[in-house]
Task: inverse folding
C-alpha cells in the first residue's frame, strides 16, 4: 500500500513569484525518504478560503498526510492554524504554558528593537499560542509553534495535517519533531520502502534515454515493471528508477543495461553529484585547485566552496572580467589576447596555467566565453565557451557551444569545468 | 471583475524536487503583468489522472484561464495534450502540416546524433502533431508545439487552457504568441489593471511593518482598502501594495506614511533592485569596482556581472579563500591576519584596499566571514561577517552577525556589501 502526501505552501509572496519556494522541494525530499509518495504540491495565497479549498482537494485526492508551510506569523493575515482547526473540526484554545514559552523567546528580541510596542507584541504572542483541540504542539524554533493535527472523529481515515512555519530554517528544524509524533506515525503506517536508484550522465541528449529504454525492452528487460523518469539538470541527464519490493532482478538488469550502453558518459550511479565526486578525487590525491574565470566571474569558485571544509583544497581564484585583469592577475600575455581574442582556447589555457601559478595550486581552471546576450559573432556566437583544466601531468581543453540564456550559459560552464576536472584526474589529457 | 488564473506544472522531476520549477514563477509574473490574478499554482506528477484532477479543481475554483507546462515531449509519459483535449471535450486529430514542420526541425538535429533511429523519431514526431479540435497551435520553439484550447460548448464559461512545453526557454519564447490568440483574449476580457507599488527597505525586522500598518490605520489612512503584503527576501523587506482603480488617494497616503517612517532604510520605491541601483550609481560617476572575497568566494563578483554590459564597470576580483592567497593576491599583510584573525574589520579593510589597488578600480569591496557550519567561536560565532567598501574619498566598514545557514550567510553577505556600496556612493564614510 502506498502512503500519499500533499504539500500546501501558503503565501502571496510565493504565488506572485517574489520569493522562491524552498519549503515545497525540501518537504518533498523528506517525505520521499520516509517512503511516502508526494502526489501534489499546491501554492496558494494567504486567503483562508483558498487554503481550505486546497486542504479539501488534497483530502479528496486520497492524501494520508498534508504538510502546510507558512501563515503562522504574528500578523493579521497569518491564518493557517485557524483554517486547519476548522478543517479538522477542532476548536482552538489558548495554551497558556505555550504563550509563556513564546514570550520568553520574544523578550530578548524586544531588547534588540527597543522602539517596538510591548502591547502589540503581547497580542501577537497570544495569537500564536492558540492550539486546535487534540493537536500536538511542535516547539517554536523562531516564535511560531508548529502543529500536528489529527483528522476529526467524523472522518477517521482523513488526512493528518502537519502545520509548519514559513521560514525555511524554522520549518527544517521542526521537521524531526513532527515525524516523531503519534499522529504522524499513525498517518503514514504501511509506507512501502521503494528501492530508488539514480544514474547520471554528462554529454548526451535526453532523447538517448528514450532509445535506451526501447533497446532494453527489446532485449527482454521488463522495464515496464519499473518507474523510470529522466530529466536534464544543469546539462546533466538524470535517470531515476524506482521499484517495489521483489523487483530487484529487473531493476538490476535495467541498471546494467544503461551502464553498458552509456559507460563513456556515466559518472555517477550512487546519487553522488559531480561537485562531490571532484571534491573526493582532489582530496584523495591531496591536490589543491585554483580558478581563473572570465564569463563565469566567480561562479565556479563559489560552487567549489559551497560546502564546508573546502578551504583545504580550494586555494582561491581570480575573476578576470576585463583583459587588463587577465594579464595582471593571471599573467595572460596581452599579445595572446590580441592574436586569438579573449574567448579562445589559447587564452583559456593561459588562464588555467596562470591560476595554477598565481595560487600555487595543483590544478588550475580557466574559463572564458560569451555568455550573451550581446558580444556574439558568426565565428564565435553567444554560448561559445572555452575551458581548460591544467594539472601537473598536462592539460585538457574544450571549446563548446552551450545552449540557453546568459545565466544558463554561465551555470553550464561551471558544470562543464567540473566534468573536465574529473576527466583530468582520471588521466585524460589533450 | 477580476480575472483568475491557475498554473499547473507537470513533472515528476519537479514534484520530487530533483528540478527547481522555473516555469510557475515566470508564468505568474507574466499573468500579473496582464492584470490577471494568479490564485493557485499546482505541481503534479506525470500521471494523466492527476493532471486531470488538477484541471477540474482549478475550474471549480473559478479559474478563467489555466496554464500548463510540461508533458509535451516525445516520450511515452508525455500526455498533457491528450488530457487537456479530454478535459475540454475535444477529440485529437493529426495536423499533417504541423507534422511536416516539426520534421523539418528534427532533421538537422538527427544529423548531429547520427546513431538515432529514424523510425522512432518519426513516431514521436507524429505524436507531437496531434491537436485537439478547435485549438490554436503555437509554433514549436524546440520540437513541441504549444496549444491554446478553448472550453467546450457544454461549459462555455469554463477555463481556456494554455498548454506550454516544459523547457523554460521554449515556454518563454512561446508565451507572447499564446497571449495573442483569440481564445486567450476572450478568456481574460475584463482584467482589472490594478495599481501595484513596491517599497524596499534594508536593515529593519519584518515585524516593524506590522507596527507601521497599525500606525497608519491609527492615523486615519484607510489601509484596509488596500492589499498590502510584506516579505523578507535576501535580507531585504519588500512591501507590496495593490489597489483597485479609484483608490489612488489612500494608496498614495499609505506610501507617504511608510516613506516618512522608514526614510533611513528605504532604498527603492519603483521596483528597482539594489543590484540595479548600485550599477546605475556607479555608471553615473563612471566608476569601476573590484572585489576581494573570502567567505563569499566569488558570489559578489558573479552577482555584479549577472546582467549584460557589466564589463564597463566590473574590473574583476580575487577569491582569497586561504590566508596565503589573501596576501599574494590582495596584498594583505600576514602580520595583520596574525594579530586580528582572518575574520576581522582590519582584514576586511585590507582586502577592500587590496582589491582597489590590484585591479586599479575606483571602489574596492572586501568580505571576510564565517559562513559555517564550523569555524565559529564564542567571540566570532558562525554568521560573523566583516565587510569594507573602499573608495577614493574614504571607507565604510561593518561587522555584522547574519542569521541562516552557510548558503544564506554567503548570500546575505553579498546583499549587505551592495547596500554598503550604495551608502558609500551616497557619501557615507566611517
Result:
Amino acid at each position: 500500500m502506498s502512503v500519499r502526501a500533499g504539500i500546501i505552501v501558503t503565501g502571496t509572496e510565493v504565488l506572485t513569484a517574489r520569493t522562491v519556494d524552498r519549503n515545497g522541494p525540501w518537504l518533498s525530499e523528506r517525505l520521499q525518504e520516509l517512503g511516502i509518495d508526494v502526489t501534489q504540491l499546491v501554492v496558494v495565497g494567504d486567503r483562508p478560503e483558498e487554503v481550505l479549498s486546497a486542504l479539501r482537494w488534497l483530502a479528496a485526492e486520497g492524501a494520508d498526510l498534508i504538510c502546510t508551510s507558512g501563515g503562522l506569523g504574528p500578523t493579521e493575515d497569518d491564518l493557517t492554524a485557524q483554517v486547519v482547526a476548522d478543517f479538522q473540526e477542532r476548536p482552538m484554545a489558548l495554551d497558556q504554558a505555550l504563550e509563556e514559552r513564546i514570550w520568553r523567546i520574544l523578550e530578548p528580541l524586544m531588547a534588540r528593537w527597543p522602539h517596538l510596542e510591548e502591547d502589540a507584541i503581547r497580542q501577537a504572542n497570544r495569537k500564536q499560542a492558540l492550539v486546535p483541540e487534540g493537536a500536538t504542539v511542535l516547539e517554536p524554533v523562531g516564535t511560531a509553534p508548529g502543529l500536528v493535527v489529527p483528522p476529526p472523529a467524523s472522518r477517521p481515515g482523513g488526512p493528518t495535517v502537519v502545520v509548519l512555519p514559513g521560514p525555511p530554517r524554522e520549518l527544517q528544524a521542526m521537521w524531526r519533531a513532527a515525524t516523531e509524533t503519534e499522529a504522524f506515525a499513525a498517518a503514514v503506517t504501511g509506507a512501502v520502502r521503494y528501492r530508488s536508484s539514480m544514474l547520471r550522465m554528462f554529454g548526451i541528449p535526453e532523447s538517448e534515454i528514450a532509445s535506451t529504454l526501447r533497446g532494453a525492452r527489446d532485449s527482454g528487460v521488463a522495464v515496464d515493471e519499473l518507474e523510470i523518469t529522466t530529466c536534464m539538470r544543469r546539462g546533466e541527464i538524470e535517470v531515476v528508477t524506482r521499484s517495489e519490493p521483489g523487483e530487484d532482478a529487473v531493476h538490476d538488469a535495467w541498471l546494467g543495461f544503461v551502464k553498458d550502453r552509456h559507460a563513456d558518459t556515466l559518472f555517477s550511479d550512487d546519487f553522488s553529484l559531480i561537485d562531490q565526486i571532484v571534491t573526493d578525487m582532489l582530496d584523495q590525491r591531496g591536490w589543491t585547485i585554483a580558478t581563473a574565470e572570465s564569463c563565469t566571474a566567480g561562479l565556479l569558485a563559489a560552487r567549489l566552496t559551497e560546502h564546508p571544509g573546502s578551504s583545504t583544497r580550494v586555494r582561491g581564484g581570480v575573476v578576470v572580467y576585463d583583459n587588463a585583469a587577465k594579464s595582471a592577475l593571471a599573467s595572460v600575455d596581452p599579445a595572446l589576447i590580441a592574436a586569438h581574442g579573449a574567448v579562445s582556447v589559447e587564452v583559456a589555457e593561459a588562464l588555467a596555467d596562470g591560476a595554477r601559478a598565481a595560487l600555487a595550486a595543483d590544478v588550475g581552471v580557466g574559463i572564458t566565453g560569451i555568455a550573451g546576450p550581446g558580444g556574439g559573432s558568426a565565428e564565435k556566437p553567444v554560448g561559445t565557451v572555452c575551458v581548460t583544466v591544467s594539472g601537473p601531468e598536462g592539460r585538457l581543453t574544450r571549446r563548446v557551444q552551450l545552449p540557453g540564456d546568459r545565466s544558463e550559459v554561465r551555470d553550464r560552464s561551471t558544470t562543464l569545468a567540473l566534468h573536465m576536472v574529473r576527466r583530468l584526474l582520471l588521466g585524460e589529457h589533450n
